Amino acid sequence: MQRPLADEIRPKNLDEVVGQRHLLAPGAVLRRLIEKEAEANMVFYGPSGTGKTTIANIIAQKTHKTLYRLNATTASLQDIKDIIADVGTLMAPGGVLLYLDEIQYFNKKQQQSLLEFMENGKLTLIASTTENPYFYVYSALLSRSTVFEFKAVPAAEAEPAVLRALEIEKDRAALPLDWEDGLPLQIATACGGDVRKAVNAVELLCNAALPRDGKLYLTRDDAAQLAQKSAMRYDKGGDAMYDIASALMKSLRGSDPDAALHYLARFLEAGDLVTPCRRLLCSASEDVGMAYPQAAAIVKACVDTAMQLGLPEAQLPLAQAAILLATAPKSNSVVEGIGRARADVRAGRTGDVPRQLQNVHADTTGFDHQQHYLYPHNFPKHWVAQQYLPDALKDIKYYVWGENKTEQAAKAYWEKIKGEGAV
What we know:
This protein is α/β, with parallel strands linked by helices. Helix content is 49%, strand content 9%. It contains 19 helices and 8 strands. A hairpin with a 2-residue loop joins strand 7 and strand 8 (215-218). The termini are far apart.
């Protein structure tokens, strides 16, 4: 039976690994640790197909330890105990290196069970995760480990791996194998930084290739069909989703319509309407706010329309909302104002509601039969000087006028009216 191409092409030494230059370039810390055969517990954090398993294999070879692999989605505490039982036997004469994939699926008790073996040196742990380890890995385990972040492999660095895979397939093929110009870079780009995915695409492409003029010929059109949506990293509820949501929000706030459309498109391609709708609705008040108050109503209408239409038509009203928010004048006076007010409330700075603002039933308490509330509409310009805040906060200012045209116009309007009313 033929070995999977991704397994056959797996690098045997650090120089063959593509990507992760920040970890593996000459002089980088992780490379120095590996070359010096240092025994250290590590957590590898990063997306799939970026070399985490490969580096664990190389570390096991360099340290002369027996490599055991477990996946936390299916492993149990008994599996770990069975591995520890091999320490000091012919099964693991040089010690055990446990590669625990997807450690985020181990609960706290399961993660704690590893500590004893890590402490007494019977076990060297390399755990990998695609989620932020500071959220999902038990703190005591993290304190005994060093976290290394793996990053998506750029297309230019993934291309050599694709070329190696094509050369292996050329040797395997029953007929001469050839491909269109630019195909290796196309596959490397479409893999979205996942080298394993790129190599698998090569294998599928070669398996599906049709003979032409006595040879197998790989086309870019076939590669495009195999790589549909593969360049996009998206895991609903995972780090990738929150990263894209954050990028969309910050692009709207930064008034970059092109970036906003890009991150919106990534949600649309993943079929997620809810997350971008929430971000758009939030940005309307958080980032545009009083600089263009109508934006909230317009964005709400766009979101409602999108949810009624569904995909693919929903892309149009959502794109309209994104462009509107990205190009609208900005003001964070709303979020700053309510933030200051809530900070006072949380700190206990409240006080009694002024008598003139209390509910009418207060007039029947017998303490004071007059509420003394002044009805603003009975006064010129519908305003009258009156204390609204509790006595302890009567001079506090939560809302600060933004510098945009809309808020400055409102400021001038009220300064004129209140100035006249104070005379």
